Amino acid sequence: MLTLRERQINAIKQMLNLNQPQSKSIIAEPVWKILVYDRVGQDIISPLVSIRELRELGVTLHVQLHSNRDSVPDVPAIYFCAPTNENLDRIHQDFQNGLYDIYHLNFISPIPRQKIEDLAAAALQAGCVANVHRVFDQYVNFISLEDDFFILKHQNSDDISYYSINRANTKDEEVEAIMDKIVDSLFSVFVTLGNVPIIRCPRNSASEMVARKLEKKLRENLWDARNNLFHMDAGQVGGLFSFQRPVLLIVDRNMDLATPLHHTWSYQALAHDVLELNLNRVFIDEDAASEKTGAKKKAKACDLDNNDKFWMTHKGSPFPTVAEAIQEELEEYKASEEEIKKMKSSMGIDGETEVAFSMVNDTTARLTSAVNSLPQLMEKKRLIDMHTKIATSILNYIKARRLDSFFEVEEKIMSKSTLDKPILELLKDSEFGKPEDKMRLYIIYYICSQNVPEFEFERMKEALQEAGCDPTPLAYVQRWKSIMKGSLINQQINPYEGSGTKTVSMFSKLVSQGSSFVMEGVKNLVVKRHNLPVTKITEQVMECRIGGEIDDYLYFDPKLLKGGDVLPKSRAPFQDAVVFVVGGGNYIEYQNLVDFIKQKQTANATRRIIYGASTLNNSKQFLKELSLLGKEIQGSALT
Fold first, then answer.
1. What global pTM score does this model have?
2. In what helix (H) or strand (E) does residue 199 lie, and over which residues does it extend?
3. Which own/partner contact pairs does 634-639 have at CB distance under 8 Å and 24+ positions apart?
4. Across the 639 residues of the chain, what is the mean pLDDT of every consecutive 10-residue run?
5. Potential cystine with 414: which of 79, 149, 496, 532 (Cβ 3.0-4.6 Å)?
6. 534 with 581: CB under 8 angstroms?
7. What are the angstrom distances between the C-alpha of 619 and each of 83, 275, 381, 587, 600?
8. DSSP per-residue codes, 540-592
9. Which residues, at least 6 apart from 520, have a Cβ–Cβ distance to it below 8 Å?
């Protein structure tokens, strides 16, 4: 069955095929066209379709809507943008300037009736009504980063960030606008999936606002006979989740502030935390030669996508495992390269000599086979080199900031284990990490401690300031903790139960063989398998358990004629879930859900979870949002 990402790719490819279904039987010559997108459209397309694939689909030129563009006659122009006033004004301007002969207008989310009337009036005024061939609502207003992971926004994600949702002085109409943006995108997700979910969420939170608005929007669409977008609902051909409807669990970031700040140990999450992985791409400084010559450093883009088998296999693995796997791949490649060299020399082929191939049939066949596999070998070498650069860069950060030690200490705090050194001593240790790392460590300690006396809190704050930390996030976290008393974090004795690490003695494959990775001083940590708070709630919701935290969760079914939040008495467990975090997600939670669902697979039933979030910030960015919220509290205290 097609994943969410594959369905979105198909929708984009159909749009690029001038909204005609793609023919699989005959590979037709593509129609050449121009793609004009805004920033939002670019963010949606870039993790899905490569430049090479755009070329294969007949896109000869892809340009920004708001750039200076020349007129290109005789070629259709496909517009892919949000229906904002700014974008529509620019389209009106293009009509006036007669930039293209044929316009195919595709809006990322539905264009309101009034705006479409304005568009028609502009086309009439410019005398280009006949040139506008199609106007489509695409319902693809979300970004698929993985087959089972989506976010709503990348550019201007501040609009729907944790900070925007939790500000003290946000006006009601601003909150409504934020929730409407989130609902619009979530609606697009379910139109793309072809399913109407059952919705669960906690009471009295931003997630409840999203759930109620989404239920209303889904119900209105279902009961609109002319515009129903869910003809292909679950149980029929087309729905992603067959036979049974999925459950949509909407939770609030406030349920767990520790995980987004937690130092991490898996490859993908580390790349996001220290290298700022964005839209499946990281930028790595080119080799150290530039440092010696004093030349300006070049940053090389590395794409980490589904076509990279190494990445798909190891993105969730602990970092030492990844380093060992890269070393193995490198040795495998060297062995293949060596074999080709030996065959060439045994046939007398060197830079100047050629021998008649027919005389050595067996070796010829082997060499031909090896030569035929050269493209795959070269691609393998490119990927090994790329992952070596990425892993080396991450390793440098681990050593410089003692990230392995921070991860280990935080796991001990979360699992309520005894620390080797008091937390105050760690904060005062000038050799131990950066100020940002210490602040993250202390916030996790503060969140996970039942009671921190005021005098101790002030001592810690003083130590953090002496270490060069900005103390403003603490004002917000302190208020958050007092508000959240009685929630999941405090109801459970330990919401992070089962976490922790153990140290394995040696890096067996990296020590002896002249490895690229000098792991001296880095701990070989093995992470204990445990469920994070979001995963624990997901498990309870999927199992329809009674007697847990979810008894108080609201229940919405958009298919019922009358709205309501009454829980049905008999409920079968859900096979499929979409977990959505209002206020931002992270790769740590995503990987935790992936690991959880792998364990739940049985011979008779395949279970699926899709993880989504309004935004995707790394710990540094999330800490900055907490700092902004803390400044507001301090500002209001002063006035």
1. 0.90
2. strand 198-201
3. 634/472, 634/475, 636/168
4. 92 93 67 94 95 92 94 93 96 95 96 95 95 95 96 88 91 93 96 94 93 95 83 46 80 94 96 94 70 61 92 94 90 79 62 46 59 76 93 94 94 90 92 94 93 90 94 94 68 64 56 62 82 94 83 89 68 91 96 93 82 96 96 77
5. 496
6. yes
7. 32, 12, 32, 11, 29
8. HHHHT-SSSGGGGSEEE-TTSSS---PPPSS-PPPSEEEEEEET-B-HHHHHH
9. none
Residue 622: DSSP 8-state? H
| CA atoms 238, 241, 243, 246: torsion sign | negative
What's 5-67 look like in SS3? HHHHHHHHHHHHCCCCCCCCCCCCCCCCEEEEECHHHHHHHCCCCCHHHHHHCCEEEEEECCC
Q: Do 145-256+532-627 and 4-140 fall under one CATH topology?
A: yes
Write out the E strands in 202-319. Answer: 247-252, 281-285, 299-303
CA distance 477 to 479: 5
Q: How far apart are CA 227 and CA 597, in angstroms?
A: 35
Q: What is d(CA 474, CA 443) in angstroms, rounded to the nearest whole number?
A: 7
Task: Look up residue 524 and give its two tokens.
Answer: 């070989």
Angstrom CA distances, 177 to 540, 583, 610, stand at: 31, 14, 25
Geometric angle at alpha carbon 163, from 159 and 166, rounded to 5° = 110
The answer to whether the CB of 605 falls within 8 A of the CB of 278 is no
The DSSP output letter for 296 is: P
The H or E element containing residue 198 is strand 198-201
Please give the structure tokens belonging to residue 396: 């440098």
Could you give the CA distance from residue 534 to residue 364 in angstroms, rounded to a whole number? 58
**What Rg do the C-alpha atoms of the chain give, in angstroms?**
28
Query: Residue 506 region, left (φ>0) first, then alpha (ψ -120 to 50), else beta?
Result: beta
* Cβ-proximal residues to 138 (8 Å cutoff; 6+ apart), any chain: 11, 15, 80, 106, 107, 108, 109
Whose CA is closest to 532, among 485, 573, 586, 605? 586
Question: In angstroms, rounded to a whole number, what is the distance separating the alpha carbons of residues 87 and 39?
Answer: 11
Cross-strand partners of 399: none
Report the b/e string of 478-489 with b at 16+ CB within 10 A.
bebbeebeebbb
C-beta neighbour count of 187 within 10 angstroms: 21
Q: How many CB atoms lie within 10 A of CB 47?
A: 23
Q: Please report how many Cα atoms fall inside a 13 Å half-sphere around the Cα of residue 35, on the Cβ side.
A: 26
Q: What's residue 228's pLDDT?
A: 84
Residues 83, 111: contact at Cβ < 8 Å? yes
pLDDT score, position 156: 79
Three-class SS of 481-548:
HHHCCCCHHHHCCCCCCCCCEEEECCCHHHHCCCCCCCCCCCCEEEECCCCCHHHHHHHHHHHCCCCC
Classify 145-256+532-627 by CATH class.
alpha beta
Joined together, the tokens standing for residue 467 give 């270490």
DSSP symbol at 100: E
Give the separation between CA 125 and CA 128, rounded to whole angstroms: 8
Complete DSSP assignment for 534-550: HHHHHHHHHHT-SSSGG
Q: Spell out where 253-365 has E strands.
A: 281-285, 299-303
Cα angle vertex 25, ends 24, 27, to 5°? Answer: 75
CATH value of 4-140 in 3.40.50.11270, 3.10.20.600, 3.40.50.2060, 3.40.109.10: 3.40.50.2060
Per domain, the residue ranges of the chain are: 4-140, 145-256+532-627, 305-527
Q: Which residues pair with 65 in a beta bridge?
A: none
